[in-house]
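hey so u asked for the seq, here:
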Amino acid sequence: MKNDSQFATQKAMANVDDNDDDSISMGNPSSKDRDDLVNADDGDVLTKYEFELRLKEVRDYYRETNEISQEDICLNLYRTRFPDLRLNRCFVGAESTIPGAGRGLFASRDIEAGEIITLYPGDVIIAWGKSIGDFSGKVSVLFGNHVKKEDQQAVGKRLSSNSARSYEIKIGDHHSLVADPLLANYPAYLGHIANDSAMLNSNKKASLDKYRIASEKGHNAAYFEMEGSHLAQVATKSIMKGEEIFVSYGSDYWCSRSGTTAAVKKTKNQVSKGFGKN
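ran it, structure tokens below
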């Protein structure tokens, strides 16, 4: 059972401001009140189980108080970058091992299969009036708590454009999570930097089959939904220090970006409920 200080810290981490942008207030709990989730002094020891448990505790708190709906608390948690997480297992390299892919995500230490690597940041959430990617309907933007008010107009315009869709992940029928590619200096939130080990530029069966085989073989990580309120990148294979981290975006991702369509089944590497780029 949590004590009052733990509840206060959890609530401060997930509470909603009265601002019009409905962002999350992280609060400023003292070091004495911080629980194990955000204790930077303990180094790189955060586990998938521990982080998921903390998210569950936040959701359970609001189930009891009914201060915020479960849908709203999940959206709020998705767009929260928790500070000082004890998660430092990857870094951004200037060049991917995939020619022409740009930056790449690399392991800063050996990582075991099943171990959490990093998290996928929610710098903005886009609420789509019609369907995801359909700009003909009403499109609204919910900002992460870390996005300053004076920057919201520029950030919203940039991250709700078609060009930002490379960093977009579906989190429901009418919401998508978009990570800011300019924010890539916090090891706990680098899930948006990982590349696919294969690319797809055609919806022809031969191309689809070739892509699926290559991406299935080449990926060593996948995105997993945690308590319906965060996406974690988890190792699906053992990864050595210095090795590049790959996820399988899935053929739907590539086809949607190239303007083609593909009737494909979800693979075992996809995020549960269809979330994510896998």
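The chain has three domains: 4-78, 88-120+188-278, 122-182. The helical segments are 4-14, 48-65, 70-78, 152-159, 205-218, 251-258.
lmk if thats what u needed
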